[in-house]
Design a protein that fits this description.
about 290 residues; alpha/beta; six-stranded mixed β-sheet; five-stranded parallel β-sheet; globular
C-alpha cells in the first residue's frame, strides 16, 4: 500500500464508498494526485476491491463509526461516492452523542424524504463530525462530461428533439426528488427513472422494444440531468460503459448528460463502445 501523502497542515481525505465503479475511479484519481485516501466502505453496499487501500467496513447507518474514523485518522475532507440501494432501518442507526438529539428528524427523513433530502442530511451529519464534504468532481475533474458530442457520432435532428423532451421530463422528475433520467422516443417521453436506477430503466425500455410496445423505426435518447437545486457534492448523474451496453440493448440512438455536472466513467471504453455501435454520447446544457 502506498504511503500516505498530503500537503503540510492538511488532513487526510476519505471516501464513503457505496456500490458501483465510481468510488474506485475517485480513489485512483486521488492517489494519482499524490494522496492516499482512506476508504469507509458501506458493508451492505460497497462492492469494490479495497485491499490496496487502507479501509474499514461499516454499517450504512453507523454514524458513530464515521465520527471515530474521521477523528482517529485525521480526516478533514470526505467524498460521498457510489450508490446506496437500501436505506438503513431505524434499528440499524448508530448515532453519536452529537447526533442523538437529532434522531427523530433523521429517522423521519430516512422514512419519508427523497434521495436529495437524505443526502443533505448525511452531509450535515458528517460535517458535524468534523470533516468537510466535497464533490467527486473536485478531486477527479477528468471524469466530468464536457459540452458537445464526445463521440464521433453526433445527435441528428430527431435525437435533438428527443433530448429536449427528455430534458424537460428529467428536470420535472428531479423537482419531485425521485430520479435524474428519462427516455424519449419520437419526441414523447416513454420512461422515467425511479428507485430502480438507470440501468434497470434501460432494461425496461429494452423489454418494451422486444414486446413491440415501442416503435422500431424511431430510436430515442436517454437524458440524465442534475435535479434542480441538487447539492453537487453527492449523486451527480453518472454514465459509463455499462450505460452504453444498456443503450444498445434498448435500441436507443444515444445519451445526453448535463455538461459540467455529470460524470463519465471508463471514458475511453465507453466512447469506443459507443462509436463502434453508432451511438452518441453528448454533453448538453439546460438551454440547448
Amino acid at each position: 500500500m502506498a504511503a500516505v501523502s498530503r500537503e503540510p497542515g492538511r488532513g487526510r481525505v476519505a471516501i464513503l464508498a457505496g456500490a458501483g465503479n465510481l468510488p474506485t475511479h475517485v480513489a485512483r484519481a486521488i492517489r494519482s494526485a499524490g494522496e492516499d485516501p482512506f476508504i469507509i466502505a458501506l458493508s451492505a453496499e460497497a462492492d469494490g476491491d479495497w485491499t490496496s487501500f487502507q479501509h474499514e467496513r461499516i454499517g450504512t447507518g453507523d454514524f458513530a463509526a464515521v465520527e471515530r474514523i474521521v477523528r482517529v485518522n485525521g480526516i478533514d475532507r470526505l467524498i460521498l461516492s457510489g450508490s446506496v440501494k437500501r436505506r438503513p432501518e431505524w434499528r440499524e442507526i448508530r448515532p453519536t452523542w452529537k447526533t442523538l438529539a437529532r434522531m427523530p428528524g433523521v429517522v423521519r427523513t430516512l422514512l419519508r424524504g427523497g434521495d436529495d433530502q437524505v443526502l443533505r442530511m448525511v452531509i450535515a451529519l458528517i460535517e458535524g463530525a468534523g470533516a468537510r464534504v466535497i464533490g467527486a468532481h473536485e478531486v477527479a475533474p477528468d471524469l466530468v462530461a464536457t459540452l458537445g458530442a464526445l463521440t464521433s457520432i453526433e445527435p441528428d435532428a430527431a435525437s435533438k428533439r428527443d433530448i429536449v423532451a427528455g430534458r424537460e421530463a428529467a428536470l420535472a422528475l428531479g423537482l419531485l426528488d425521485v430520479g435524474q433520467a428519462a427516455v424519449a422516443i419520437g419526441g414523447r417521453v416513454i420512461a422515467l427513472e425511479g428507485v430502480e436506477g438507470t440501468d434497470e430503466m434501460l432494461a425496461r425500455v429494452a423489454d418494451l422494444r422486444r414486446r413491440g410496445r415501442l416503435s422500431t423505426s424511431r430510436k430515442g435518447v436517454l437524458v440524465k440531468f442534475c435535479k434542480p437545486g441538487q447539492d453537487e457534492r453527492a449523486d451527480l448523474p453518472t454514465i459509463g460503459a455499462g450505460t452504453v451496453r444498456g443503450l444498445i440493448e434498448a435500441g436507443l440512438a444515444g445519451v445526453a448528460v448535463e455538461a459540467g455536472r455529470s460524470l463519465l466513467l471508463e471514458r475511453e471504453a465507453a466512447i469506443s463502445a459507443a462509436n463502434e455501435a453508432g451511438i452518441f454520447i453528448a454533453g448538453v446544457t439546460r438551454e440547448d
